[in-house]
């Protein structure tokens, strides 16, 4: 099916030049060279990083036991695996990226709405990961620099000039890999995976030996009551789903390069496995620091500063830098860059889109997003899941229930009013309405979390704590109903124009 679609694209029609370039065309058979292992190694590179390490530790910081934190992470990633595989399927089948897939549900022009929302979140994450890489560079600086007045925080900047300089340095270093495009990313992930696994194993062994086993971790019990646990459970699951909801949405950007559907499915299955193992490492090492240093150190970069030893420090910093780059480029550059290419194929290439993504990552001021575990989990992760949940619900309903897994490749690249995805002047009003209605109920909870509203009804708090689930089913269900009503209307009046929504 994919092969015939691609040949049809090449031989039977000329796509509208405003809708395509080399980055947006369906992948050819020769370009489909991601094996199951390479898809899995992508997830190793994505998972092994400071935010993943920090995630379960954040839950422990909030009062959960070690096993409760790990269980929530694994459960959330098992749930995320389903939409990952479902949305990845059309990428492999038709060789199309996320922006092109979004045209079938939101319309040829309407697709800019979901892709730019996804791009905005990607820019925020790009900034966060780059800040983490900058922290690693900061650790390598001489003590005299770290103790100087330039290391003192400036209120209007929100950080110190030295830390900001380290952030900019790491920001520039990443662009060299981004410049090589998707092939450079694939090679980076494939060869980095075994290195990251080895370094992670060394850190775990070090903690085990220094702490005399993991007895202290196993002895960590919950510091909250049963009712408090359940009040944290649902927003924590939502936050952990939100952690990878970004990539789950634009996974066609990668699965379009998979050799077969089996390769993409086997590769995707690595997410809950690797995430569970790595969060265990994070919690185990974090708990061991209580025994080794006398106090808990949840930030791995701070921990490396305590370990000491020049060779150990350099290897560890290189490991963190590699882990950060592999996660950042794959998860947070590809989607925004492709969204910008889709916005204007004549003006943006993948490289130009990646550079603009990096610039917007600075504007997001990531050092403010990482102020505390609570702001990271409940404001950032839960907040943006409310944007991505309804988009995912609409695209899944459209592809599996409305389109029945059959897309017209030709119509995805035409502005003809007779095209299947032209709808009303290029916009599918049903999808846009469902998206807006899906997001609205979550806004009061978000405003309370950022401090704009003092109090809201309990029902809105419950909705916000389950934002991803609520918005996905609300928007997806509403879109399905509106699509059926529109279809019935056309059947009643067959003379109704095709571009009426």
TrEMBL record:
Query: Topology relative to the membrane, per the entry?
Result: Multi-pass membrane protein
Write out the similarity annotation. Belongs to the purine-cytosine permease (2.A.39) family.
For the keyword Membrane, the answer is yes
The UniProt entry's GO CC annotations, sorted and at most eight, read: plasma membrane
Which segments cross the bilayer?
42-60, 66-87, 119-141, 161-179, 191-209, 229-251, 271-293, 313-341, 353-370, 376-401, 421-443, 463-482
Does the record's keyword annotation contain Ribonucleoprotein?
A: no
Molecular functions (GO terms): nucleobase transmembrane transporter activity
Q: Where in the cell is it found?
A: Membrane
Q: Which domain of life is it from?
A: Eukaryota
Q: Which region ranges are annotated with the description Disordered? A: 1-25
| Alphabetically ordered keywords of this record | Membrane, Transmembrane, Transmembrane helix
Q: Which PANTHER family match?
A: NCS1 FAMILY PURINE/PYRIMIDINE TRANSPORTER, PURINE-URACIL PERMEASE NCS1
Q: What is the protein name stated in its UniProt record?
A: Allantoin permease
Main site of residence? membrane
Q: Which GO terms describe its biological process?
A: nucleobase transport
């Amino acid at each position: 099916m994919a092969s015939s679609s691609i040949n049809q694209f090449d031989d039977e029609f000329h796509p509208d030049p405003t809708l395509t370039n080399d980055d947006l065309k369906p992948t050819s058979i020769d370009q489909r060279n991601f094996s199951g292992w390479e898809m899995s190694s992508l997830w190793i590179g994505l998972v092994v990083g400071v935010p993943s390490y920090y995630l379960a530790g954040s839950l422990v910081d909030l009062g959960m036991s070690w096993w409760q934190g790990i269980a929530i992470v694994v459960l959330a990633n098992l749930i995320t695996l389903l939409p990952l595989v479902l949305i990845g399927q059309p990428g492999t089948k038709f060789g199309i990226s996320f922006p092109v897939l979004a045209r079938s549900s939101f319309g040829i022009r309407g697709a800019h709405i979901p892709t730019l929302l996804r791009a905005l979140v990607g820019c925020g994450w790009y900034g966060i990961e780059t800040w983490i890489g900058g922290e690693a560079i900061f650790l390598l600086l001489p003590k005299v620099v770290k103790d100087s007045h330039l290391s003192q925080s400036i209120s209007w900047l929100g950080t110190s000039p030295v830390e900001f300089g380290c952030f900019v340095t790491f920001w520039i270093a990443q662009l060299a890999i981004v410049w090589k495009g998707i092939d450079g990313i694939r090679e980076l992930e494939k060869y980095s995976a075994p290195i990251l696994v080895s370094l992670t194993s060394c850190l775990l062994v070090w903690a085990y030996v220094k702490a005399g086993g993991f007895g202290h971790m196993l002895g960590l019990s919950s510091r909250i009551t049963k009712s408090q646990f359940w009040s944290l459970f649902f927003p924590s699951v939502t936050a952990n789903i939100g952690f990878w909801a970004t990539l789950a949405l634009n996974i066609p950007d990668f699965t379009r390069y998979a050799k077969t559907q089996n390769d993409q499915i086997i590769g995707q299955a690595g997410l809950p496995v690797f995430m569970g193992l790595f969060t265990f490492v994070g919690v185990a090492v974090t708990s061991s620091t209580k025994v080794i240093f006398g106090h808990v150190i949840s930030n791995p970069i701070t921990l490396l500063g305590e370990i000491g030893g020049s060779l150990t420090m350099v290897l560890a910093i290189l490991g963190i830098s590699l882990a950060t780059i592999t996660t950042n480029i794959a998860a947070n550059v590809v989607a925004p860059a492709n969204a910008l290419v889709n916005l204007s194929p004549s003006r943006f290439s993948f490289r130009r889109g990646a550079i603009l993504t990096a610039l917007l990552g600075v504007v997001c001021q990531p050092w403010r997003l990482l102020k505390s575990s609570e702001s990271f989990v409940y404001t950032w992760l839960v907040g943006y899941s409310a944007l991505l949940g309804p988009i995912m619900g609409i695209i899944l309903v459209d592809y599996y229930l409305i389109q029945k897994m059959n897309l017209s490749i030709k119509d995805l690249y035409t502005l003809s009013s007779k095209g299947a995805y032209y709808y009303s002047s290029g916009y599918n009003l049903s999808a846009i309405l469902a998206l807006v209605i899906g997001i609205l109920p979550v806004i009061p909870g978000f405003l309370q979390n950022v401090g704009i509203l003092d109090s809201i009804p309990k029902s809105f708090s419950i909705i916000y704590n389950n934002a991803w689930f609520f918005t996905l089913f609300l928007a997806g269900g509403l879109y399905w109903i509106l699509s059926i009503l529109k279809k019935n209307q056309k059947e009643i009046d067959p003379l109704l124009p095709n571009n009426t929504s």
